[in-house]
Amino acid sequence: MKPYISASADDGPGGEAFPVEAANSDNPTDLGSSKQKLEQTIVLIVDLTPAVWVNGVPPLSKSQNVSRLQLYNLYNIMYRFIKTYAIMSSSSRCCIIATHSSESRILYEGLVSNDWLTSSFHGVSTQNEHADATMTGIWRSMLDFIASGADSPSGDPQLTTALSMGLLYLNRLNKTGTGYGRRILLFDVSTPDGYKSQYIGLMNVAFTASKSHVSINTCAFGQSSRILEQLSDITNAKYLSLPKILKSEEDLQNYDQSISQLLAFWFLPSHSASEHLSTQLPFDFSNTAVCYCHYSTVDIAFICPCCFAVYCSETEDNGKYRIFCFICNSRLTKQLIKKKMAGDADFSKT
Fold it and tell me: What is the pTM (predicted TM-score) of this model?
């Protein structure tokens, strides 16, 4: 059984798929035409889990002199990235989606050249005031969104919902001809064992994105997530694990500046530009099977027939037979409770 490729607004993927309409060659202004189909839209998904950003994200280093990545550092990283993206084209669009365990919300959407860049002419204060108001509004929206998740500060973010919103946004722009985008960039601060309960929904989103030629890129600020690595692999995207790259003391001392340079190099170029650049990650990911019960590498595994979740054993840690899949909650094949002889069977009740 293959995963069903679909999406709905209630429980993630489960409804209509995300088709991308073919280009209309009769309309010369159609952005989907072969001559004007330029990639100019990016979706940025930010994990704003309150429990993480209260104390900041610690870099995976044994050095005591390395400071944590605070929320204002993340804001500065986003500001540099989007401002550089705005300079690349006057028609660049961006959608910022924030997510935590309670909800997913769009914090910003629009033309970044109009909202993020100040005026280059002396004495023109209207554009400068508009850019300052946009920056202040996004910062306040981030604070308000984190405050809204104070009731459940440590749960897994609603990543399935956020990715579905990003796909729907790109699909709407493509269908209406107001833009064209193929990239989603996720700022992830989750734990390695996160998103297990959303595995089926995330896989459906990944296959839908792959069908629509949309890449789900990930920039992991903490430990690597196998599920997010799989999402990037399915959509032919990039998975950037910062702890595997930023190891020197100099990089860790200038953490936010180093991250900004990495983001500009790996994620700013479009798909067409990346084909002409040597943008290969310095490490490759293997498709080695990893169990979802202990997150250990296995050679011989037990597979759930519904969601393809991998288990290293048929029994749980307490020695009891595994009856339910804790990823999709499907009931697994149950062993015989008691062996009986054929002569002892009572056929009168059948």
Answer: 0.74
